[in-house]
Design goal:
The complex is a heterodimer of chains A (225) and B (220). Chain A is an all-alpha fold and 225 residues long. Chain A contains 8 helices and no strands. Chain A is flat. Chain A starts with 6 loop residues before the first helix and ends in a 6-residue tail after the last helix. Chain B has 220 residues and is mainly α. Helix content of chain B is 82%, strand content 0%. Chain B contains 8 helices and no strands. The longest helix of chain B is centred in the first third of the chain and has 41 residues. The radius of gyration of chain B is 21 Å and the shape is flat. The chains are: A mainly alpha (225), B mainly alpha (220). Chains A and B meet through helix 3, helix 7 and helix 8 of A and helix 2, helix 3, helix 6, helix 7 and helix 8 of B.
């Protein structure tokens, strides 16, 4: 077998890899959208007045956060059919990623809400604003900028965890690389290209998030311009 | 088959896998701590070449997916004549990936040491090596341990990935048992529980204990 990097082979498989990259981006986007909503649900569970709900919610979050995403994927993919729920690999993957990162995002939301000063709440009480009005007009506009950096970080995090989906057969970038590699019995080019594609997508994304963080800090008055 | 019968039959296999998982965790923790110390210090170097190398390393390993790095180390390095055993490849990939995240924590910790400490060491005419070793490093532990604890829990979760490069760890055994018995709920459920117990009742209390110890050492 020829050693070293073969550029012609890399060029030949490039279109296939780029198509698969699109799948990876879609997977990350859909997973992130689900995670955003699931995070809100966990946040609700955390903030309801009922003690029992709080405790159960915390234990679920703690359990999901301290177990590996890989086994959670296997669990959802292999166990649900035993209860008669047949979902495609795509759907299983999206649900699992959404649940897993939803627990992280709920922490981001919580931190952002707690970042809003208590006096803001007191002022709204004094002005006799309703709770919904307080959230909508006073608290959320202030909490959202605080949450942005954390939310951005997890978007990049989800993007980097999408290769795990290949283990249950979702045809994303890493899956394509493994298939191409196995077919041609050359793993050097496909895996190297996956690495480069990930770098070219995630470094700008990370820089964008860092930039946002700086802007938020300036807007919050934490740093002088 | 009841769950207890399942445990009686396959429990020992899963426990054997757990031992491998713990071995991977310990080895890669040692590696990642060393790497993060080295690259964290390099990141703060005044020499632009050294700083550049550290920045490239950190950006590269944080920019790509751990699974890709793992497969690259295990399947691609042999093309360059470097064949690593699965266990070693797993530990190296995990250690290098988490070392990049750890280096940022170390850097933040060093920057968070009060300026007066640097100035006092300077005033006492300490050499820069001695200043770092004797004054700065001992003080960063209470600062870096809480984020490092989070990172170590993430590392425990990430060790599951080494199963994909044929290291016979807990995940690998669970997959194996699943493919023989098709008792998916039992075997993956048990694996999840074992990871949960390891993280919540062993690793986290140990790291909290370290945090308290470090805080006490600097007199807080």
């Amino acid at each position: 077998m020829e050693m070293g990097f073969r550029w012609d082979f890399a060029y030949q498989i490039l279109p296939q890899m780029l198509w698969a990259t699109l799948n990876t981006i879609i997977a990350a986007g859909v997973g992130y959208a689900i995670a955003l909503v699931v995070g809100l649900l966990f946040l609700l569970g955390q903030r309801t007045p009922s003690k029992i709900v709080n405790v159960i919610n915390r234990e679920i979050v703690e359990f999901i956060r301290s177990t590996p995403l890989l086994i959670q994927l296997f669990f959802v993919y292999f166990v649900l059919p035993q209860f008669g729920i047949k979902l495609s690999a795509w759907l299983c993957g999206m649900i699992t990623i959404g649940l897993h990162f939803g627990t992280y995002l709920s922490e981001v939301y919580r931190g952002a809400l707690e970042g809003v000063s208590k006096t803001q709440w007191e002022a709204c009480r004094a002005l006799n604003f309703s709770t919904i009005y307080t959230y909508r007009k006073i608290v959320l506009p202030q909490a959202f900028p605080i949450a942005i950096p954390g939310m951005g970080n997890y978007l990049v995090g989800i993007f980097k965890d999408t290769p795990l989906l290949s283990t249950i057969g979702v045809a994303e970038l890493f899956h394509a690389a493994t298939a191409v590699g196995g077919y041609n019995y050359r793993y050097l080019e496909p895996y190297t290209m996956v690495g480069i594609i990930f770098l070219t997508l995630s470094i700008p994304a990370a820089m964008w998030v860092r930039n946002l963080e700086k802007k938020v800090n300036v807007a919050q008055g934490k740093v002088k311009q | 088959m009841s769950y207890f019968a399942f445990l009686a039959e396959h429990g020992p296999t899963l426990l054997l896998g757990t031992v491998t998982t713990i071995k991977v965790l310990v080895c890669s923790t040692i590696l990642y701590v060393i790497i993060s110390m080295i690259f964290g210090l390099m990141r703060l170097s005044k020499n632009p070449a050294i700083q550049g190398i550290a920045t490239c390393y950190i950006e590269f390993f944080r920019g790509t997916s751990l699974l890709v790095q793992l497969f690259w180390v295990y399947y691609v390095l042999p093309f360059f004549g470097l064949s690593l055993e699965a266990f070693v490849a797993g530990v190296v990939a995990l250690g290098m990936n988490f070392g990049a995240y750890g280096a940022e924590i170390v850097r933040g910790g060093i920057l968070a040491v009060p300026k007066g400490q640097w100035e006092a060491a300077h005033a006492l005419n300490f050499s820069s090596a001695k200043r770092i070793k004797r004054i700065i490093i001992p003080q960063i532990f209470p600062i870096i341990l809480p984020p490092a604890a989070n990172l170590t829990v993430e590392l425990l979760k990430a060790t599951a990935l080494v199963a994909l490069v044929t290291v016979v760890d807990l995940t690998f055994e669970a997959k194996q048992i699943n493919s023989i018995t098709w008792l998916s709920a039992q075997c993956f459920g048990t694996a999840l529980l074992i990871y949960y117990i390891m993280a919540r009742f062993a690793l986290v209390p140990f790291l909290r204990w370290l945090e308290v110890l470090a805080a006490r050492k600097v007199g807080r």
